[in-house]
Amino acid sequence: MEVSVLNIKGAETGRKVQLNDAVYGVTPNDHAIYLDVKLYLANQRQGTAKSKERSEMSGSTRKLGRQKGGGGARRGDINSPVLVGGARVFGPQPRDYGFKLNKKVRVLARKSALSYKAQENALMVVEDFTFEAPKTKSFIEVLNNLKIAGKKALFVLPGADKVVYLSARNIERVEMMPASALNTYKVLNADVVVMAESALAVIDGNLTK
Fold first, then answer.
1. Are residues 12 and 107 in the same domain?
2. Residue 145, Cβ neighbours under 10 Å: how many?
3. Whole domain around residue 73: which residue ranges?
4. Fewer CB within 10 Å: C terminus or N terminus of the chain?
5. What is the pLDDT of residue 111?
6. What is the mean pLDDT of each run of 10 residues along the chain (209 residues)?
7. What's the angle, vertex CA 128, arms to CA 126 and CA 131, rounded to 5?
8. pLDDT score at 73
9. 127 and 108 in one domain?
10. Into how many domains does the chain fold?
11. How much is the pLDDT for 1?
C-alpha cells in the first residue's frame, strides 16, 4: 500500500512511501485486539482499594446478645458484618489487575489496529518536523493544514521531541507518542493516526522482528 508523504503545510511532497503489508495489511484479529486493550486498561488501574476485614477492626469482642431466641442472625461482637459500621466480608484488597499476554498476541493486536486504520484511510504520513520553540499556535496551524482540527489525532514520532510535545499538550483531542510506545488502545481510540516518516521504520522494526 502506497501513501503520499505530506509536509506540515498539508501539501504533497511528491514522494510516496510503501507501507509494509506485514504490518499495515494483515487480516485484523478482533480477539487479539480485545485482549491487548483489556491488558492496557487493566494496567491503568491503581489497585489500591482496601476495606477492613473483621480481624482488622477495633472494638470489643464481647458477645452482644444471646445465641438463640433473638429472632435474628447470631451476630456475635460489635465488629460483625451484620451490624452497621462492622467489618466487610470479602472486601477489596490491594492487588495488581495486570495479566500475562504473549508477545505474539500483543504484536498481532498492534498490527490489526494499524491495518484497520489503513483500511479506513485514517492513516497519514508527514515529513519529520519540529519547531524552534514550544508554541501551541504553531501546532494548531499544522492541524489546520492537515485538515484534522477537531478530530482525535494521534501523532507518532520517531522519538521523544520535547518541543513538539510542549506545543501540542494543551490542545484538546491531540496526543503525541514515540513510535516505541505505540499501543493498540491509543491507535484505535484516535480518529486519525499521523505518522512521522522516520517513525515507520521504528514501527516496522518493533513489529516484524
1. yes
2. 16
3. 51-91
4. C
5. 96
6. 88 90 94 97 95 90 88 87 90 95 96 95 93 93 93 93 93 93 95 95 90
7. 115
8. 83
9. yes
10. 2
11. 80
Q: What's the CA gap between 205 and 198, in Å, rounded? A: 11
Q: Could you tell me the pTM of the whole model?
A: 0.84
Q: Are 99 and 39 in contact (CB under 8 A)?
A: yes
The full length of the chain comes to 209
> Got the DSSP string for 44-96?
H---------GGG--S-----S-SSSSSS----STT-TTSTT---TT------
